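How a chain folds remains the central question behind the approach discussed here. For one protein, we set the task of working out the structure tokens from the amino acid sequence alone. The sequence in question and its structure tokens are set out directly beneath this paragraph.

_____
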Amino acid sequence: MNPIVEAFYDPITGTLSYGVREPDGRHCAIIDPVLDYDARSGRTSSRNADRLVDYVRQHGLTVEWILETHVHADHLSAAAYLQEKLGGRIGIGEHVGRVQSIFKNIFHAEPDFATDGRQFDRLFGDGDTFAIGALQAQVLHTPGHTPACVSYRIGDAVFLGDTLFMPDVGTARCDFPGGDARTLYRSIRRLLSLPADSRLFVCHDYPPPGREVRWQTSIAEQRAYNPDIRDGVSEDDFVASRTARDRELDLPNLMIPSVQVNMRAGHLPPPEDNGVRYLKVPLNLL
């Protein structure tokens, strides 16, 4: 059984969120939802998340899962907001604790901030399976961009997170703490060994001039046209080119606020003794 997939694009962050539902049922999952954030004012809002709420209610769906492919560095997660509105369990890869440990120190999080992933309802290991109603889903650990990245294979659809982009954009960067280009190469080659008729859905699109936003690709397209990882590109060549390009990249615009929220499963940091919640900016560190 293959899912019906609905994409929700946020032009501010270039993020694709997905509603994934049974073709003949009422169960669904939400993947990589966005919470809006205004960096000038420090205000959050739910414009993008409410589009997903409307989608669920219009189709009369029951949310089984809210799935994160990793701790994102380019948008805030709306997982906690959507769980409050719609229910469902929040899931992420089991290695999220490695990411939490790194960023707890970078952002000097509260002493009782746990780094074992307990903020999430389910920690998925490689090969784990779960159900979305009658749909069967499998988890693939695909590290490299971060050590905790996973992809979700649901029927013939694979949700890639940041591991791969559209073929004319390339692959994820590997210079975040815990990232590794050699590991990413092996993760992508594993993905590209899946059946040729698999539908691949990316988490971001940054289209070159003249192209409209796209979010669905195929194994054949990636193997033929992705300059970073197409067939014939060796592991050593990929590592050399990816590492050189990463040296030239700036941090994502919303990395500092995003990680502090996303490592908490979409919850904002706890309020301080004046009742106000704060995001921290480490100086001269990142």
Observations:
- Helices lie at 47-58, 79-86, 96-106, 181-191, 219-225, 235-246, 255-262.
- The mean pLDDT is 97.
- DSSP finds seven helices and 15 strands in the chain.
- The two ends are 45 Å apart (CA to CA).
